[in-house]
Design brief:
The protein has twelve helices and 13 strands. With about 350 residues, it is of the alpha/beta class.
Length: about 350
């Protein structure tokens, strides 16, 4: 299943030089810190969703039945039910893809969420990397993806860069004989879900769209996500799944989060996130040493500043956890990722950052 490493100027092979298994939860585990390291929306899950999940507990004696939740996801995206597969979080979908989709030359576009590459490597693949550059705003040029790549993985909006790639750019990568995986785990945090390809499943050849319900709804501990793909791909992924992979409480959450009222609430939350992100960006702009990647479109921002590791330690000592950036291929020790929070939390963070950097912002 292995193939040659990519040799183009802006590509590289997966050589294991970074810890692909490091994630933001490691920054806050076992510590009482203000969390800017994990991209789960603060103040979630809402009370009504907790009640729906709690009500499902009376049925725990029965094996999970995902038909209604699967139908709800299909209706939410206007797709047939057989183009939907429910998973234990989007992370499980990457493992299923690595097991079920046969590829000769898989390529992952970086910097991005590292689990796709980790899952492919665990499955025995040699993984090529397309490394996007800061000088280009971490934007994807389709020409950078090798023509013979038959499995391509890209995030939109991309974690950690927060870049939202145009749907037309990503669609241009689809072609017969290629599986194009677009990780839209944060798309519901983008107002209007603009640039989503979810509605093109079955239209674009080989398109697979992944979604997560853990970010917007605060369900990281419950593990619920889903795959949108053509019927043949969904069937292959389902065969690679164990029996009853999604718990009854997670199924109840999936059904609830696809209801019209929940979609309206998520849309309103996306608008608030955009306002809060603008405030964070304005405050970061007060620091000459801080460069922000962008334009940012997700519920997080990526920043570069000298001595980021020491800054991260200083912020931790002052009660704030931020995500290190050096475990993302294509980044280095001068990068940090910051989750978007409310204005008051941002202002407290900025005060701590000023203290770490040795003076007030300009």
């Amino acid at each position: 299943m292995t193939g040659p490493a990519l040799s183009a100027a802006r590509t590289g092979s997966g050589s294991g030089e970074v810890d692909l298994r490091h994630h933001g939860d490691a920054e806050v585990r076992g510590a009482d810190l203000t969390d800017l390291a994990v991209n789960v929306r603060a103040g979630t899950p809402p009370a009504w969703l907790k009640a729906r999940i709690a009500a499902s507990l009376d049925g725990l004696a029965a094996y999970p039945d995902g038909r209604e939740a699967r139908r709800a996801v299909a209706v939410r995206h206007g797709l047939p039910v057989d183009r939907v597969l429910l998973t234990a979080g989007a992370a499980e979908a990457f493992v299923l893809l690595a097991r079920a989709v046969r590829a000769r030359r898989p390529v992952v576009v970086h910097p991005q969420f590292t689990e796709p590459e980790a899952a492919l490597r665990d499955a025995g693949y040699e993984v090529g990397r397309v490394l996007l550059a800061e000088r280009d705003g971490f934007r994807l040029d389709p020409a950078a993806v090798p023509d013979d790549a038959d499995l391509v993985v890209v995030g939109n909006p991309t974690n950690p860069t927060s870049v939202l790639h145009p749907a037309a750019v990503l669609a241009s990568l689809a072609r017969p004989g290629r599986t194009l995986v677009v990780d839209e785990a944060f798309m519901d945090a983008v107002p209007g879900e603009r640039e989503s390809l979810a509605g093109r499943v079955g239209d674009l050849p080989g398109l697979v769209v992944l979604r997560s319900l853990t970010k917007t709804w605060g369900l990281a501990g419950l593990r619920i996500g889903y795959v949108l793909a053509d019927e043949e791909t969904v069937a292959a992924l389902e065969r690679a799944q164990p029996l009853w992979p999604v718990s009854s409480p997670a199924l109840a959450a999936a059904e609830a989060c696809c209801a019209p009222g929940a979609l309206a609430e998520a849309a309103a939350a996306a608008e608030r996130i955009a306002v809060d992100r603008a405030h964070l960006l304005a405050r970061l702009g007060e620091f000459p040493a801080v460069a922000v990647a962008g334009p940012a479109a997700g519920p997080f921002v990526l920043v570069r500043l000298p001595g980021a590791a020491a800054v991260r330690a200083g912020l931790r000592a002052r009660g704030f956890a931020v995500r290190r950036g050096d475990t993302f291929p294509g980044l280095g020790p001068d990068w940090l990722r910051l989750a978007v929070r409310d204005r008051a939390t941002t202002d407290r963070f900025v005060a701590a950052l000023a203290d770490v950097l040795g003076g007030p912002p300009r």
